[in-house]
Amino acid sequence: MNWLPTRDAALARLEEFLPRAGRDYAATRNFDRGPERRSNVSGLSPYLRHRVVTEREVLSRVLSRHSPVAAAKFIEEVFWRTYWKGWLEHRPSVWKRYQTELLSAVEALSRDDDIALRYAAATAAETGLDPFDQWSRELVSTGYLHNHTRMWFASIWIFTLKLPWTLGADFFLRHLLDGDPASNTLSWRWVAGLQTRGKIYLARPDNIARHYQVPFAMPEGLTTAADPLSEAPLPPAQPPTLPARVTAVGRVGLLLTEEDLSLDSLPDAIAVKGMALPRRLSPLPISRTVVDFTCGVVEDAVRRAAGRFNLDRSDIAHGNDAGREIVRWARQLDLDAVVTAYAPVGPTASALDALEGALNDAGISLLRRCTDYDRCCWPDTTRGYFQLRKRIPALLESLAVRRPEQHVVKPGGRHARRS
Ligand SMILES: Cc1cc2nc3c(=O)[nH]c(=O)nc-3n(C[C@H](O)[C@H](O)[C@H](O)COP(=O)(O)OP(=O)(O)OC[C@H]3O[C@@H](n4cnc5c(N)ncnc54)[C@H](O)[C@@H]3O)c2cc1C
Fold it and tell me: Per-residue pLDDT tens for 223-272?
């Protein structure tokens, strides 16, 4: 699989995968057959991560091809992403805690030779544990790992190599094209036994042997019993403060960020600008593959918006100076308001907070727009995933994601549900 940073490539991937999104997916999704034979999963995550295609679009296309029963597994997986995003929105301190612990773990690398050596071996694919080294190489060279492999990798990292989980989550975030503060941090926490208290995920040799269908030699000494990691209790969940629905007036500029590149229901604007990777995701360098892909999808969205709405466009702002560049752009165009998508917990949200202050100082407002999808789904993400899962049919109904043939137009124009 390879990922071109365009919406055209995302739509082509979706259409190509569609026939296999039903029962085939449910039966085969757990097998990792290696990068050359990965047609059993969609490979859509780098695009969904940045909303180059939206969850709603993917779900609608899948339900146009399969019944809700046949597509249930795939739909549930898309809702795992929704769940992690919503869960972290209710507990932003978990992201802050991760960042603080990561900084200490990175600092410890310069003091503790033993950890530094094990960390260097794990990230350079030189541990001597055959499948683990294959996965480490694959991650760095392709920017992707299969879900089951991510679970084995994280488990071996934490329980066999006994490395800090935050360093592993950071290694993923710096190399995954779909690297996401919520899905990544919370999945690593889940493997470590922090997310579902007391329940860890252990990579078992028989499970790897069955599901990893690439030639490899099973290593000796994988840890097969371990205690969960522990931490101080988390603060209680708080509903996120989502922006009110307001209409921008006057001279409006559109700011597209890597958090949401869909161009749904955008306001009238006179210009568009992109912002990519405005804050460092990590104290360590981000891979070139991730930087190029992220900047690429933002550039593609800016081009699409400029073409579709006949807007002036300018280059994308990237890196530490992004905020200053956007303020300059907004002032030069004499904007009254900059409109952007609501950014969930993570570096873009922090960058937007800082940008808002700087724009306000220049007399320009920053308006964030939250999608109906997030507004509708996040209230069901306060507890466990199964709370959200049982609400999936109702959520699909409220979001009007349904099979087209479920509705027929009666004579007289009224819609009626087929039984
Ligand atoms: C340790 C670990 C770290 C992870 N880090 C990330 C990450 O940074 N970003 C990320 O998008 N996913 C992450 N995942 C979840 C999952 O591995 C990927 O979303 C999935 O492998 C993407 O491949 P796909 O698009 O072919 O998935 P498919 O199987 O085709 O699934 C369709 C879509 O559903 C969503 N999805 C599927 N499984 C999950 C899941 N377990 N959690 C959340 N969403 C899911 C993705 O958006 C995916 O594109 C992580 C999982 C683990 C165990």
Answer: 999 999 999 999 999 999 999 998 889 999 999 999 999 998 888 999 99
Domains, the chain, in order of start with CATH, read 7-88+383-409 (1.25.40), 92-211 (1.10.579.10), 252-374 (3.40.50.620)
How far is the C-alpha of 127 from the C-alpha of 141, rounded, in Å?
Answer: 17
Q: Residue 416 Cα, ligand 1 centroid: separation in angstroms?
A: 36
Is the distance from the beta carbon of residue 172 to the nearest atom of ligand 1 less than 6 Å?
Answer: yes
pLDDT category of residue 281 using cuts at 50, 70 and 90: confident
pTM (2 d.p.): 0.95
* pLDDT at residue 1 in the model: 84
In the chain, the N- to C-terminal Cα span, in Å, equals 40
Give CA–CA dist 24/27, Å, rounded: 5
- pLDDT, tens digit, 9 for 90 and up, residues 373-410: 999 999 999 999 999 999 999 999 999 897 655 444 44
Q: How far is the CA of 214 from the centre of ligand 1 (A)?
A: 20
How remote is the CA of residue 269 from the centroid of ligand 1, in Å?
34
DSSP letter, residue 5: S
Residue 294 has a pLDDT of 97
Q: How far is CA 99 from CA 72, 258, 347, in A?
A: 35, 20, 11
Q: How far apart are CA 18 and CA 41, in angstroms?
A: 10
Atom of ligand 1 nearest to the CA of 151: 53
